[in-house]
User: Fold this.
Amino acid sequence: MRTVIWLILLFAVAVVAALVLGRNDGLASFYWNGWRLDVSLNLFLLVLVGSCFALVTAIQTLHALTTLPERARAWRLAQRERSAQLALREALAEFFGARYGRAQKAAQRALSIHQQTPELVQDPGFTALGHLLCASSAHRLQDRRRRDEQLQLALELSKRSSTTRAQEEGALLLAAEWALDDRDAGRALDLLADLNPGVARRTQALRLKLQATRLAKQPLEALRTARLLAKHQGFSKAAAQGLLRSLAFEALDGARDADQLRAVWQQLDNVDRRDVVVAARATQRAAALGAPEDGRGWLRPFWDDIADLTPDDRAVLAEALVPVLPGLGPEWLQRLESAVQRFPRDKYLAYALGHALAERQLWGKARMMLEQVGEDHAMPAAARRRSWLMLAQMADGDGNQERRARCHEAAALIQ
Assistant:
């Protein structure tokens, strides 16, 4: 197809030349100092075109000769830059292939080529990447001194120009990850604090912060970070729920007195306080620290909306209420009886109501319900044992030592 097009163009040029130059009746006259030169117009035009072509060719040849040293320098520079790029690519390939010693040598070769070429030194981004690759290889080889040296060089180079911001962010994230590998949570948190707000909200930065806060024993900060990660879909739904609950448990279990427990509870997110499992753990901790009133207050919203809870949540709620029954007010009996009437087959609600009746010294109704719980092998062993012990305490109050002994024996036989 290309040959046909060229033939058509050649024919067109021939036709134009025949029409324009076919008649040779034109004349060009030149006068100089009394002399006159007459030539045909066609010859004059041909000589003119040829002269222009020769002049342009001469100028280009002269320009090529004068710029030859400069083009030679550019060629040598391109060759050195190509060699540096190849060395850096080789270093990356060796690093991903787990040959860290070779990767370090290749990266050093690329940096050496750049340092020996003044024109290439002006590219801080390439040099910063080379130092980061050397630092990563040194970290894998457990050479912390060399790793820190290369990392510092990379940070210094990346801070010199606004075009190397990505290298600086990468260096800080890598440094935080390495600090976590060294079990240095304080340094990791300091490095993450140096990140821009936009970078600090990235998933990788949040993952590193979560690990650092957990390592630094900061469960509340870890809980907030984990919640951000869950919003960014950094975990599956089930994994996020389990992690958030475990962090909330860790924060609650760290309280050493009732005031500290109340402060921790107030610092929890509203979503955590509306989680029945977290509230149950806080209530159990309140019972252990001698603050049953606070525990009952944290559970009251769930009891008021008990119809919205699942059977598993009702079981957790009932088991959490029993340890904080001391000092129970009469309004709670009405609340518990209403729950039992709504769910008459729920054994856990009957268990909680039986202990509440015993706390209010309503022995007759309490004894019947607690005996049913104690004899029900489907109930947890701890709930059955607590029920038999309460029955033993009630028998002791009535002076019935035989029944008291039977209740203690039944509690002791529960595995």
Notes: The mean pLDDT is 85. The chain has 22 helices and two strands. Strands lie at 27-32, 35-40. The first strand starts at residue 27 and ends at 32.
